[in-house]
Every structure is written in C-alpha cells, then in structure tokens.
Design brief:
The chain contains twelve helices and 31 strands. The protein is of the alpha+beta class. The chain has a seven-stranded parallel β-sheet, with helices on both faces. The protein is globular.
Amino acid sequence: MNYREPFRVPGKGDALRVIVKFRDYLKARVGEQGQIVLSAAEIPGELLKVIKENRIRFTQALPQYAEAAKPAALIRAEKATGEEQFDFGGLLVAQLQVPNRSDQIRIARQLYDSPLVEYVELEARDTVPPPPGDILPQTANFVGRQKYRGPNPGMNINHAWLHGGRGDGVRISNCEYAFDFSHEDLAGLGIKRFGTPHSKANQYKDHGTAMMGILAAGENGYGITGLVPNAQVQFFTEYPQSGWDRPATISKAIDRSRAGDVILLEMQTHDFEPAEVSASVFQLTRMATKAGIIVVAAGGNGSLNLDGPQYAFYRNRGDSGAIVVGGGTPDKRHIYAFSGNVGRRLNLQGWAQGVVSTGRGDLAKVGGDTRQSYTKIANGTSSASALVAGAVASLQSVVLKKYRYRMSPKQIRDLMVATGTPQGAGVRIGKHPDLAAAIVEIETYLPPTVPRNFSLTKIPTSRRVDLSWTPSTFPGTYRVYRSIGKNGKKVLVGKTGQAAINNINTVVGLGNFFWIEAINANGSRGFGQPIAVRFTGWADLSIGASDTKRIGINRFSHTGQGQIYSYTTRGYSTRFSQARLENRSSAVGEFALKGGGTNRFFQALYRVHNGARWVNDTADFLLGRASYRLGPGQKPRFLVGVRPRLSLRGKPAIGNLIRIEAKHANGRDKDVVGVNTVKR
C-alpha cells in the first residue's frame, strides 16, 4: 500500500482484539509456537523486544490464506487484474496477556510503530457495533406494504420479474449477526447457514430477520414476498460461538461465492461508519470485487460526512469496487433520511424508512407468535442496502436469463447508477435504483461477443488483404490490430463500424497476425482470437531439376521469377536443393520502399554439414557478397529486373551447404533465399 493507515481506537470496549497486518512482501506467517515467521526479512530487534516483553503469541486471522493453495476467489482476482492481491496470510491476531484496555492500546501502538506493519486494527470483543438499522426513537413514516416493489418511488422489481428477475441462478450471501430461521416466511426455503450465532448475537435477531425477509421471503400466498425468492440465499454470522470475527465472516462468504454472485454486508463500525473504513474489510472487499463478486454494503448510520478531512485516509485507498448504499426517503423525492452517512462514496440509495418485512411484530404478530411477525419499520441503511442488494440480484438474474452472461461488479454498478432515479436536493446519498430503466440499457453495458469466423482475401499483386468476420453482439465499433508473431506488439491498422474492413496492409515476413476487437458504446471490449496471415512479400519459387542452368565459372546468377539458381566454382557445381524465405526479424518489411532506392545485397555463406547435422553450428563463413539498388517505382519482388552477380571465394568441399541470403543494407534484417548442397 502506498499510504499509511491511521491508528484508530474504538470508542467502546475493554477487551480489545488486536489484528496486525504485516506488509505483503514479508509473507508473514505464524510458527508452531505462535511466533512470527517472515520469509523475506528478519524481525528487527525493536519488534522482537515488544513481542518478548509482552509475551505476545500470534494466530492466523484467515488461516485459509496462509496455505500454499490459494482460495479460488483470490486466483480469479489475480487472473482478472494480472496483479498479485493482498497477502491475507499476513493478517495475524496478536494474543495479548494484559486485561487492561490502556495496556492493550499501548502494546498495539508499539506493534503499529514497526515499519514491517501495514496497519493495526482494534476490535472491541465485549461490545459489538449495532447493525446499521434504525436508531431510537424509531421513525414511523409508513408508506405501504412493499411499495418498494413497484414503480417510482419503488425500484420496479415487479417489472423485472416480467423479464425473469426472480433471482434464478444467483447466490446471495448476507453477513450480519442472526435471524429467525424458523419464521414462517423464511423456513423451508433451503437457506444455508454458516456458523451458529453467539447468544449475544440474538439481540439483533429481529434486524437479521427483517433483512432476510426483504431478500428471500417465500412466494407462498401469505406474509410478504422477497425481492429474489428464487435466489440461493446464504447467511453468515459475524458473531459465532467463538466470538465476533468480521474478517473471517467476510472471507467465508467470499470463498462460497462465484463470479456474478452478491454479498451483502449488513454491518458498520463502532463509530457507525461503512464497514470498509476498516482496512481489513476494505482489502477483502476489493479482492472479492476483483474476483467478480458483487459486494453491496450499508453506508452506516453515523450522520457522518465521508467527504470530510477525517476520512482522507479512506478515500486515498481508492475504490474497493463495492456498491455502498445511502439511506433515502420512501417517496419520489429520494432525499436524505434520518441518520445515514453521506458523501461521494455512496453509489446508490434505498428506502431507509417505512420498509415492510418480516420480524419485530409492529405490523402484525399473528397469534402472538414471533414466527408470524411482520414489521413496517425496517429502517436505516440496513433496509436500504438490503433493498439494493435484492435489486442487484434481480437484475443479474435478468441478464443471466436473457443473455447467459454474468455482469461484473463494475458493469452492474455503472449500469444501475447510470439508469437510477436522481436523488432530490441536499446531501449526496446516490441515485435510487430503477430496474425498468436498467433493463432497457443492459445491452449497452454487456461486452461484445468475440468476433469469429474470419474470412481473408488477398488482393492480387499486392501485400494487402480484405478481412471480414461474423458480427459481434452489441458492438459499437471494431478495431483491427496487426502483430508480427502471435505475441508481438499489436498495432492499430484500422477502424470500422461494419464486420469487414478492406485494403489492410501486411508486413513482409512469415507472421502477420490480425486481431479484431469489438467495442460497445459503453467501452466494454471483446477481443477475438487472431487470424494468421503468412506473407513472404516476394514471389514463391518453383524448384525443379529441369530448371537448373549452368552459368560459367565462379559466377552465381538467377535468371528470373520462378527460376532456379545455380553456380559452379573450380570444378564443383551446386544448385538449390530448396528455396524458401525465412523471417529473421519483425522489421523485414523495411526492405519494401515504394519510392527512391534502397541498398540491398546478397551474400553467400557456408557451414560444414556432414549429412546429418551442422558441424559448426555457431558461425557462417562468408564466401562473397554482391549488391544492387532498387530504382524509383520498382516493386521489391524478388528476381524482377535485377541480375546481381556474386563471385564466390574459397573452396567449399563436397557436401558443404551454401546458404544464400538477401540482406538489408542496415546489416540486421535478412531473408534466407536458398540453401544449396555442393556437388562434384
């Protein structure tokens, strides 16, 4: 990281958990005795002193990232970015032996002061931050049962359902404390639960039940219906029996998500900030989005301005890729509602008041049974983020059904922001989702399909070609690139709005590769596999014994296009046993100048050959050379209007091979035009 994370202390809690992130290049791990093991450096004396004096032992915060085998999401993120991701194996928990809060902070600060440490996070284990729901007194701004499903001021979920947006094919994971899995609108839906909630987590069970209802309540003819009842829903408690552990919870959700799935972070910090203000959450979120997982996060309920100077460190990290959600009013104004945070980091907003869902019992509690309870006050950025997460999953399922494609986190965020209903006047909380508008614009944000079925036609008497291909889906334009060799640098040679382009030049050599790239109106790209064009740039030679001609002592000559070359020297005669062009440089095409003259010479070299292999494989022995010049306007095809003569010096032995080269005057670029065997 190119910035220094601040040392931050939670306002509450006496039992602090100290998380230490060592710098990535160190590859810090925990040894068998709880000691730190570094692969790229030695532990400095100052840090060793802090560890020994305070009898600190370490454990891996995320053990699965300390193993040699990388988790699937990490591999996807590295493949997508071409960059090594954060080393989460270097995220360690420091086990302190002191119960006093002030001593815990002091020791944590000493660890933070080491230059090997990237950041230190303090988490209060004896008190956990509340989920980002309503803050008492509750706001009873009831609009109507699930009107968020309809058109503005709703999100047009019902319209999305007409296009298959019920969540089919999408996995959505909710990360928070607890929920009532026995509720009549949630039981029997196949919701997967990971971790058994701690008894202290159950104080927030109503909160989790409301959020799960917004997402997944069954379409069963009673109660409410979730936004994506056909999605595969997972629940991860961040407060399991072993204790509150947010990074571990998020990493588990990532490990069980595929590209295109959705993770909902129903959480905030102790200071009511977005959870990703914590560096470990930010890094995990960024890795997840790079792996193609869509992360939707509550913006937090601290009435904080995230554009303020106190959050410069947060902004300096860059974009995690998550959709961070603000809280808005449940009306067409879509303006700031009660205690949510504000700022440019908020991408979208959702209703933060009057949301109908499962739990609580303030709307209905049939027979006094909590399993049949419903609420009309699922509020805060909690309800807002759950609504947006449901809208994201609904839109993704539309894309899956219509196009068999999974949108990336950036594609779906950009699409929903671009098509969202603008917020009203006031502080920044983001646009409100409009799935009807988003569905109309899906094709603009999908990458074009890869161009296929190339057709190439060579233009007679030239080095130019015409190209055509099967049109891509959703392209705005095509770009045509050429490379010399499949791994060579791609050079732009043309642009077109059609699935064809004419009169494209080639380079003399053996490896012209053409690449077609489709680009849609939003800038998404699709590269086709290359088509290879093999051009020598000169006429092919027809070699046959009947073409052999004897042309005098100590003379080499060639008589015309398609003819054989021959020479004799001191009683030994030879002719070409093969004639070919061999590309030795990507710059061979520099021979072909349209106007003016350019020097070019032939030279004959030989290497000793015993009939099975080259004997002197590292050097050629020069026998002679001759030069000629192309006149203005002359085409550089071989053997046209040119009769260079080459006198061979030396005495090649029988069985020696003579190689004839055409070489540019720059001395570097050359073509082999023949390999000859000396015969008596």
